[in-house]
Amino acid sequence: MLHYITFIWQMLLSKATYKKCISWS
């Protein structure tokens, strides 16, 4: 269960970082 939450959290985090990189460029 905890692994699943961590996986989703990392996925959301990476998605936010991706959007940030896109907006920066």
Describe this structure in words.
The protein is mostly helical and 25 residues long. Helix content is 92%, strand content 0%. The protein has one helix at residues 2-24. The longest helix is centred in the middle third of the chain and has 23 residues, at 2-24. The termini are far apart. The model has no long low-confidence stretch (mean pLDDT 88).
Brief descriptors of the model:
single chain, 25 residues, mainly alpha, 1 helix, 92% helix, 0% strand
Low-pLDDT stretches are: none
Question: Percent of residues in beta strands?
Answer: under 5%
Helix proportion: over 70%
Count of helical regions: 1
Global geometry: rod-shaped
Whole-number radius of gyration? 11 Å
Secondary-structure-based class equals mainly alpha
SSE string, helix = H, strand = E? H
Tell me the number of strands.
0
What's the main sheet like? none
Please report the distance between the alpha carbons of the first and last residues.
36 Å
Estimate the mean pLDDT confidence.
88
What's a concise summary of this model?
By secondary structure, the protein is mostly helical. The chain has one helix at 2-24. It contains one helix and no strands.
Chart the SSEs and their pairings.
Elements: H1 2-24
